[in-house]
Sequence to fold (478 residues):
Amino acid sequence: MTFRRKLQTLLILLVGVSCGLLLWMSLRRANLLAFELIQEKVFSVAVSAAPRLDGDKVAQLLRPEQDGSPLYEEVAAKLREVRDANSTGALPIRFVYIIRQLSDGSWEYVADAEENGEDKSLLGDVVEFGVPAEMPVGTVAKVNEIYTKDSYGIWLTAFAPIRNAAGEPVAMLGADIAAQRIQHLLRQLLIGDLVAMVISLSLAAALAAWLSGKVTRPLTELQNFVRGIGRGDFASRIRMKSNDEFGELAEAINQMAEGLEERESLKGALVHYVRSQAADAKLSGTMGCEEISRRITVLVADLNGFGQLASKLGGERVFALLNEYFSTMIDIVLRHQGSLEKSADENVIAIFGSRGDDPHQERLAIQAALAMQHALAKLLSEWRVETNIPIYLEIGIHTDSARVRTSTAGDQLDFDSVQAVIETAGRIRTIGRERGNRLTVSAGTAEHLHQTFPFTAVDDDSLGCALFRVEMPSPSLK
Fold:
């Protein structure tokens, strides 16, 4: 292969690899962002709609012959309200239903928002899950980490518990969001990027051909001149007007030819060899996976006193307030670089430091707690509702180590170790509640922040670690 061909190939290869990397990175980021947005939407709908359903009435739907009864239609009407209120936009909610776990571990349908047709699931029908990851986890609110694909399309599902008047979970509310449009937009983005990549490669090929020709033309002239010297033509001279290395080389060769011409007795040949070495770049990736320990900070926030509003304002109004409350709290968590773990009823659980080692995670968690308290006070002021008992947040924060499996596909927190930190944070919140504290943190969280926040020691050693109260302003109900 000639030097010109090697240079041309190398230039095209560099452009192709660069475009490929940019394409992969942009599409990967777009897919992750789209998936997170879909997760947030369907999870918010599920956890905000579940409290609106009457768990006692749901618990009475036990036999297949009750399908279509007035009680069934009353429950199904609530599900249709949730479906219809969220059926528009780029991310529409398509299916809303209630399922219940049986004694053998399987799940059955209780009620479905669909009116009729093959899309409707009847009372008592067995729920079919493609993989175990699609199933609810006990009675805990969750959003699936993978898409569900079936003959109806592509979905992402979230579940939230439905509780009776005694606060006991009786069933799970399921919501399926249609992801086909997002997938279609991502495919269009991929096609557009591929077209742009082909155009870039075409332009790169034309530029490489022009540039390689411009670079190698002086070299070709030098090569032909040296070949003439090799044949004994010492009288000719090369004319190259260039101030770069090729011009210097041409001048040196001319001087050499003059010397050879003066030495007519010299019999021989002059061989000039110019070698250019081109290295091929090879991009290789490894899919290694290892388990490490990482410090995380968990925030558990419990909204107290909100349940009294249901009897005063009605379901629609409470549903709207809960939507606004959860949207505000989730936005605060995300702004402070946290991730929403889950929420049940009016609880919010967030994790800080889950995406990588963050030396500021404790400070961000406490700042998020303060912002949540201020945001709740502002919401209560805007809502202008009269309450018999105050509405306020009780927050517990704990910092500890959790196991993380790292790979090129992303970090994944170990459920059991994270659950242990969440449970400890919940117990810290409970201890704070017993002492009338709004924000209680563990020594692990407060260790390096004593100069940043006003900490007061809590007289309790039940957890085996020191606890501190952080002074927080009481919410304003004006």
Notes: Residues 263-287 have pLDDT under 50 and may be disordered. The CA atoms of residues 163 and 169 lie 4 Å apart.
